[in-house]
């Protein structure tokens, strides 16, 4: 018999990195959620993810950055290079990135890139979300989702017993991966390049300390006659995974299919070929078959159901963009859902999720493909890919345009820009700069995360007064000193409005005759009520 129905503001389908991040970000805004996850106990395979600066800034805002960094230090060697070799015992073919954090300094971000495994990170995300009132229903999968004018009714089935329960939610975030049943049920197709390799990831235990221990390497691409792919090892070089994109003659699709033979002897053979040690003792811990593709969902939502993560975009792992893009999807939809559910914003604000995040999905999918072609698949001879953009621009410099972002004069139409020079332009991440707070160093980014904030420039007293008197929602004010004013391009008595997600919604570069009216209009845009 079905259990009694559960009612929640937001139901999240999929309890992986993106689903749990959505729950955590909603919890930051006081919105409870229910995450429905098919697995019991979370991911067991030691998938390692490369986490970018923007993702780590969001983790910092959520208060988990210290835990994430500590977990990373347990698992992986920090700051390693990314190189290409013919095999781990052989010769270096290319230097791709000299250090994981090349070009990163504390003037750009308060964070640094790192690796952490999915089994290591998921409990941190879940713990933070549950401490703030989120719940996770394990061992269940959603079998139906029916929308009406007021919400969505989900039917979730226990994967073991088949017993069903009904869940009623105001909104649903579908984060159940590339084979999203919700996306398929909604009839939303993927657009893009489709499948260009049948790949595998081999999880293994083997002593590779003689080849790698003590060497500052994060990712090692392998290109030899046996296969093309890459290694990622733990800090002790005793275990890790090997991604194999192609085998044998990569120019022949019938031969190059890495997923055609996943027998244990073949997997051991591939690890040994990558290591350059023909008799290396290898234990196979698991294998995942997957298809490398570069696609973006045609729409990111339908009614009250929103797609996030791999349900909305799929890309090759080169560059580590997939999980980061999904977590940033989660942050964008979470604060908007929270403001709508709390009665502060108009439901029209939710339409800006697709307007903002889908172009970012297109950008990152294409940049991942460009890195795949230039690092792993030069044999394709492909010429129809974007030039490889600087990593920092893809991580921190993407530009939003939507109904919740005030338009700017002479918009150049760029989808990404150098984050060192965006200078609090509407639609870009608000700049990081160190300030002092309660006698301690603090990033300007630490001021964002829950409320809107007005940054006022020199002589911007009218803006500060108007913000302080604003009613209807908490509106914080920060009066910029000379350093902040320079970073935010506030040369005179202007102001910048920063959203809870740390993106600039509006700016004024001069005083206004009616500061209160101008600020009211700006917030109406940012909240979808204009």
CATH homologous superfamily placement of the largest domain: FAD/NAD(P)-binding domain
**CATH topology-level fold name of the largest domain:** FAD/NAD(P)-binding domain
Q: End-to-end span in angstroms?
A: 48 Å
What is the domain total for the residues? 3
Taking pLDDT < 50 over at least 5 consecutive residues as the criterion, the unreliable ranges are: none
What structural category characterises the helix and strand content? alpha+beta
Task: Explain this structure.
- The chain has 530 residues and is of the alpha+beta class.
- It folds into three domains: 3-78 and 113-191 and 298-359, FAD/NAD(P)-binding domain; 192-293, D-Amino Acid Oxidase, subunit A, domain 2 (D-Amino Acid Oxidase, Chain A, domain 2, 2-Layer Sandwich); 430-526, 3-Layer(aba) Sandwich (Glutaredoxin), CATH 3.40.30.120.
- It contains 14 helices and 24 strands.
- A hairpin with a 5-residue loop joins strand 9 and strand 10 (164-174).
- The radius of gyration is 24 Å and the shape is globular.
- The mean pLDDT is 92.
Would you kindly provide a brief summary of this structure?
By secondary structure, the protein is of the alpha+beta class. The protein has helices at 17-28, 53-62, 65-75, 118-131, 181-185, 209-212, 253-256, 264-275, 321-341, 352-375, 391-396, 461-468, 482-487, 515-526, and strands spanning 3-13, 33-37, 48-51, 81-85, 92-97, 114-117, 135-138, 140-147, 152-158, 164-174, 190-205, 217-223, 227-233, 239-247, 283-297, 301-302, 305-307, 313-314, 434-437, 440-443, 452-456, 475-479, 495-498, 504-508.
